[in-house]
Amino acid sequence: MVQQKSELPPLALTMGEPAGIGPELALKVWLERENSQTPPFVLVASEAQMAKSSRQLGLDVVFHKVAGPADATDIFPHALPLLALDEDCDVSPGQLDPSAASSITGAIETAVKLASCGEVSGVVTNPIHKKNLYDSGFSFPGHTEFLAHLTSPNGETPRAVMMLQGGGLRTVPVTIHMALAQVPDAVTSELIVQTAEIVHRDLIRCFGMERPRLVVAGLNPHAGENGALGVEDITIIKPAVEILKSRGFIIRGPLPADTLFHEVARKEYDVALCMYHDQALIPVKTLGFDTGVNITLGLDFIRTSPDHGTALDIAGQGIADPRSLAEALKCAAHMAENKYNYTHAGGT
Questions:
Q1: Contact 104, 5 (CB under 8 A)
Q2: How are beta strands 169-173 and 271-274 bridged, if at all?
Q3: How many separate helices (H) and strands (E) can be counted in the chain?
Q4: 11-14 vs 123-125, strand pairing mode
Q5: Residue 337: what pLDDT?
Q6: CA 90 centroid distance within chain
Q7: 127 band by pLDDT with thresholds 50, 70 and 90
Q8: pLDDT digits over 284-293, tens only?
Q9: pLDDT at residue 6 above 60?
Q10: Residue partners of 108: CB distance under 8 A and separation at least 6
C-alpha cells in the first residue's frame, strides 16, 4: 500500500473523572511530551478543575485556552491547548461528587462531535467512575456503550468491540462485563463471527495489516477436551471458526487458553479472541500493566483509553503513572495515520 503524507488534526483528550487521576495524567503527559514523543492533543476539560489540579500538584503547566482544535498542533509544543467546557466543576481529589457528571459526559460528547466532523483525528478518554455517573442518572453500562450511542442519532447503535493492547499482545473479550456464570449462555456462534469481522476490518483499516491472523480461545479448560470438559467449544466456537475460515479469514481455534499467551505462541497471531473478560485482560495486564491500552473497534472514529481506572486512592498525591495514557495517545495517532492511508488508497 502506498503511504500518503498526511497532516492530520490533533487528538482530543477528555478529562475523565475529575476526582481521580485523569487531570494529573493529562498534565503529566503534556509535561513529558518530548521524552514520550506524545502526539499533539487538545484537552477537553473544566478550566477551573485543571487549574486547581495544576496548583495542588505543583505542576508548572502553561494552558492556552482555544475555541477549537484548529490551532492546537502549533500551540502544543509551548502550551497545553485547553478547550474549556461551558460548565465548570471543582471537586477534590479522591472525593466523588455527582455534580461533576455533566462536565464528565460533556467532555466526552464534545470530543465525539469533534471527531465526527473531522476536527480531531481521534478521541482518547481518561477513565470515568461509572458509579458516580450512575448516581447522577447515567444510563449506560460504561464508556464504550455511551460512545456508541453518541454515534447513532437514528437509533441504530453500532456494535463496539473492546480490544486490549499491551506487552506485545492484543486480546478481545467476546463477552465483557457479566458474571462468569452467564458467559456460557451469552457466547454464541453469531456473536463470535460478528466480533471477529469487526476486529478483522479494523486491523486492516487502522493497524495497516493486510492479512490479520486471529486465534480463538476455548471457553472450557483444554478447549473442552473433545467434549469431556464441556461441549461449547465443539458446538459453538468451532462452527464460528469454520464460518470465518470459509470467508477467507486466517484464523485458528478453539485453542486452550492456558497455552495461548506464552512468548512463542504470541508470535503466531495478531489478536486473540477470548470468551470472557478475565481471559482477555489478565494476560495483557500481566505483560504490560503500566502501558496497556484499551481500544474501541467498530466505531466511525478512533477511540483509545489507558487500561486502568480512576485510582481514587492515589488521586492528588502526584504519583500517578502517565505511561498508559501516553501509549493510548500514541496508539490513537498510529491508528489515525493508518486509517488515513487506507482511505486515501481507496479502502472503505
A1: no
A2: parallel
A3: 14, 12
A4: parallel
A5: 97
A6: 26
A7: very high
A8: 999 999 999 9
A9: no
A10: 14, 123, 125, 143, 146, 147, 150
First-to-last alpha carbon distance for the chain, in angstroms, is 14
Q: What is the DSSP string of 186-240?
A: H--HHHHHHHHHHHHHHHHHHH--SS-EEEEE-SSGGGGTTTTT-SHIIIIIHHH
Express each pLDDT in 303-321 by its tens digit: 999 999 999 999 999 999 9
The full set of domain ranges for the chain reads 1-158+301-348, 161-298
CATH: 3.40.718.10, 2.40.50.100, 1.10.620.20, 3.30.540.10. Which one for 1-158+301-348? 3.40.718.10
CATH no. for 161-298: 3.40.718.10
Indicate the pTM of the whole model: 0.93
Task: Give the CB-side neighbour count of residue 298, counting CA atoms within 13 A.
Answer: 21
User: For residue 244, what is its C-alpha cell?
Assistant: 470465518
Above pLDDT 90, what percent of the chain?
Answer: 83
> How far is it, in rounded angstroms, from Cα 154 to Cα 64?
36
C-alpha cell at 57: 500538584
Q: What is the DSSP string of 46-99?
A: -HHHHHHHHHHHT----EEE-SSGGGHHHHTTTSEEEEE-SS-----TT---GG
Please give the Cα distance from 5 to 139 (Å, whole number): 42
CA-CA distance, 250 to 93, in Å (whole number)?
48
